[in-house]
Amino acid sequence: MSARSYTLPPVIDPASVGALRTDLLALRGEDLIVEGDAVQRIGGLGLQVLISAQRTWAADGHTLSLNQPSPSLIEMLRLTGAAQLPEFNS
Q1: In terms of C-beta density within 10 A (0-12 exposed, 13-18 middle, 19 or more buried), how is residue 24 classed?
Q2: In a domain, 46, yes or no
Q3: What CA–CA distance (Å, rounded) separates 39 from 71?
Q4: Distance between the two ends of the chain, CA-based, in angstroms?
Q5: For 89, how many CA atoms within 13 A lie in the half-sphere containing its CB?
Q6: CATH classification of the domain holding 27
Q7: Domain total for the chain?
Q8: What is 17-63 written as a DSSP string?
């Protein structure tokens, strides 16, 4: 079975993070590729949702992969130290 794909929105801020969480939970139970190339801005709460989702998928025995993160997303991962987490350091 192939992995499903989900494209992150351009802006992930407190106003949109609830929808992101809902969207991701609706895809739970199967491998997921999260496309990050459209992200222009992401806040700490959005990053927390992505980390939590990756850990949830792992606990469920599935993979959640971040594909083609945008420069803004890469910078946020680097600035927060999240780039060093096993979830994003592959």
Answers
A1: buried
A2: yes
A3: 8
A4: 22
A5: 8
A6: 3.30.750.24
A7: 1
A8: HHHHHHHHHHTTTS-EEEE-TT-SEE-HHHHHHHHHHHHHHHHTT--
Query: Are the C-beta atoms of 31 and 67 separated by less than 8 Å?
Result: no
Q: What is the pLDDT of residues 30-77, one digit of tens each?
A: 999 999 999 999 999 999 999 999 999 999 999 999 999 999 999 999
The answer to whether residue 34 sits within a structural domain is: yes
Task: Measure the CA–CA gap between 82 and 48, rounded to whole angstroms.
Answer: 10
Per-residue model confidence (pLDDT) at position 89? 63
Question: In angstroms, rounded to a whole number, what is the distance separating the alpha carbons of residues 73 and 77?
Answer: 6
Residue appearing with tokens 């700490």: 44
Report pTM.
Answer: 0.89
SS3 64: strand
How far is 18 from 61, CA to CA, in rounded Å?
A: 24
Query: Does residue 87 have a pLDDT over 80?
Result: no
